[in-house]
Amino acid sequence: MTPPRLDPLSVQAKLALMAELVEDLDAVGAVDGARLHQERLLRRAVERMLTQVVDLAVSVCSHVVSSRMVNPPTTYRGAIDAALTLKALDEELATSLRRAIGMRNLLVHDYARADLDIVAAAVPQARADAAAFVRQVSAWLLREH
Fold first, then answer.
1. For the chain, how many structural domains are there in total?
2. How far is CA 40 from CA 43, 95, 105, in A?
3. Taking the model in full, what pTM does it have?
4. 2 or 11, which is more confident?
């Protein structure tokens, strides 16, 4: 069985959405736990953007990986690791994305107990990760397609 074909337009559309999320996180400005506690709509928006960054990164990695492997991984971390193996990501970004997956899981599955100071501290890293992800995967697409 051959892997499905890579759809560069789909990948580029997801990368464009990630770039928009970086802009949106920039527009939020500085956040801390107290601000997120006081501004519930902001908190919900930030939490959603943080989860979207991870979900889009994993979706892109899964697509890229499935176009190169017969038996691609089925977990979030597995998709990141496989994209690292394909050199679509560098080690530093893969490590950071693995941590972001943990934050995403907390927000999605156990959000009532999320420490808002930790959520706020994740915002600058999410900005940096999403921007780096767009750069690295775009470069990989140019090399591979």
1. 1
2. 5, 30, 20
3. 0.93
4. 11
